[in-house]
Specification:
heterodimer, A: 112 residues, six-stranded mixed beta sheet, globular, B: 116 residues, seven-stranded mixed beta sheet, four-stranded antiparallel beta sheet
């Protein structure tokens, strides 16, 4: 079946450094890839998304890259800050029912 | 504008009991979704309402789960009888447009269910 693998499960970086979270999807027909951030005690919130006709998208300190050939997409956060600490989820839109298929999440810890 | 609200935030029940989770979507959002996340694993799709109709319930695990959205406003998800493997966090999300699955989802804080 369709699935999305996300790595790492936990990522600890020094404040000010960059963080990269990677996801691999199985459905080659997927064409929409959002990233959600879940802060403690809150629900997931969309932070950035990318469609399959674009290779990269940036929004201030965050960027997402997509490699359709390899079926990989990644989230890049530069100049990390304490408020970046959260669980990040990647997802891919499935082609069978157009619902999102989610990764298992990455807990990002920003060390002061 | 109020966000998506879910109730209860945490429920602890014994195996075999019944639990009903409630979700109030953002006002005006026709699309309502239920998801579940088991500890440390991926968020899994359960079902999708458009107004009061079940658009897609392919993710519902079995017939112990019943979702309703009478009147197209709030939704309830009932688990009866609950089993140990039903433990997890149940998220509700809503969106204004379906957009073929490309639209932003607005999530509630989740209802944590613990079945003992």
């Amino acid at each position: 079946g369709e699935n999305v693998e996300q790595h790492p499960s936990t990522l600890s970086v020094q404040e000010g450094d960059s963080a990269v979270i990677k996801c691999t999807y199985s459905d080659s027909a997927s064409n929409y890839f959002p990233w959600y951030k879940q802060e403690l005690g809150k629900g997931p919130q969309l932070i950035i998304d990318i469609r399959s006709n674009v290779g990269e998208k940036k929004d201030q300190r965050i960027a997402v890259t997509l490699n359709k050939t390899a079926k990989h997409f990644s989230l890049h956060i530069t100049e990390t800050q304490p408020e970046d600490s959260a669980v990040y989820f990647c997802a891919a839109k499935g082609s069978s029912n157009y619902q999102l298929i989610w990764g298992a999440g990455t807990k990002l810890i920003i060390k002061p | 504008e109020a966000g998506v609200t879910q109730f209860p935030s945490h429920s602890v029940i014994e195996k075999g009991q019944t639990v009903t989770l409630r979700c109030d979507p953002i006002s005006g959002h026709d699309n309502l979704y239920w998801y579940r996340r088991v500890m440390g694993k991926e968020i899994k799709f359960l079902l999708h309402f458009v107004k009061e109709s079940k658009q897609d319930e392919s993710g519902m695990p079995n017939n112990r789960f019943l979702a309703e959205r009478t009147g197209g406003t709030y939704s309830t998800l009932k688990v009866q009888p609950a089993e140990l493997e039903d433990s997890g966090v149940y998220f509700c999300a809503s969106s204004q447009d379906w957009s073929g699955g490309n639209g932003e989802l607005f999530f509630g804080e989740g209802s944590r269910l613990t079945v003992l």
